[in-house]
Specification:
The chain has 332 residues and is of the alpha/beta class. The chain has 2 domains: 215 residues, Spore Coat Polysaccharide Biosynthesis Protein SpsA, Chain A (Alpha-Beta Complex); 109 residues, 3-Layer(aba) Sandwich (Rossmann fold), CATH 3.40.50. 34% of the residues lie in helices and 20% in strands. The chain contains 11 helices and 16 strands. The protein has a 7-stranded mixed beta sheet with strand order 3-2-1-4-8-6-9, sandwiched between helices. The chain has a 6-stranded mixed beta sheet with strand order 13-14-12-11-15-16, covered by helices on one side. A 3-stranded mixed beta sheet has the order 5-10-7. The longest helix has 17 residues. The protein is elongated, with a radius of gyration of 21 Å.
Length: 332
Amino acid sequence: MPRPLVSVVLPVRNGGALLAAAVASILGQTLRALELLVVDDGSTDGAVAALPADPRLRVLANPGRGLVSALNHGMQAARGAFLARMDADDESLPTRLERQLALLDAEPGVGICAAQVEIVTADGPPAAGNRAYQDWLNALTRPADIRRELFIESPLPHPSVVLRRAAWERLGAYRDGPWPEDYELWLRAAAAGIGMAKPDGILLRWRDHPGRLTRTDPRCTRRRLLELKADALARDVLRGRPVLLWGATDTGALLHDRLLAHGVAVRAFVDLDPRKVGGRKRGRPVLPVAAARAHADAFILATVSQRSVKPAIRADLAALGRVEGEDWLFAT
């Protein structure tokens, strides 16, 4: 078989009835020059053995155990110039890979191309929280937008991504740690200056269900995500700058603790609530918004997670002469 243009890595453990549809959605792509590597992570349900024969399909046994091991094994076996991801319970629309490679061809500064998604459930449309999350994900298509909101939460749906091989080799393998392996990789990519983007239009049906790893895996808890973000902020963004935490919240307190462990100088919290202003949080003063002007050298991390109030926070910080991405960011 000729060397494929794209290698698609699909790890699976007991994919059940959904696996066949996920595989068919890749083998049915309009871009035909691909290989699909199904990495079996100890399945016992017979779904992998029941997959149809296709010269572009290779089934690999994971020599280790777990998702990160399976992902790295598939990436190491991949032969394509581009490396794509797929999950066993999702469905790629037919033009997904063709559209993503067109973007990568047109934009050499982009090393990772994800996709806009439709979140689907067995019970119909997703709940309001997932609809808001979907809208947020799909609004972030350009590299500057993704980089600006990278620390709110992971802006790239993992099963939708395509990476240039050069970007993958520069970043190295997925890391197996107490946090989501995909988000950790995107944070490293941003630190390395690798652009991330998405073409316009839904290209993946992303299935939500009670057994989804983001709901069940302890690596995906709020605390673990915050620790991962704090580590990357301290290492790659702050670089010795003191910090003001915008929002005297419980999340702000957790971020304070993790940043402090990295030696970051957290000067104070900033809050609008008059009941909090003048008090202390984690031993730091809680300042009114206007007082932030006296700390022009400090980087501001906003820790208020409600999407509805983010425009007001942006307006307040703009009024203080702050530029998002240069001297302040949302951290939740």
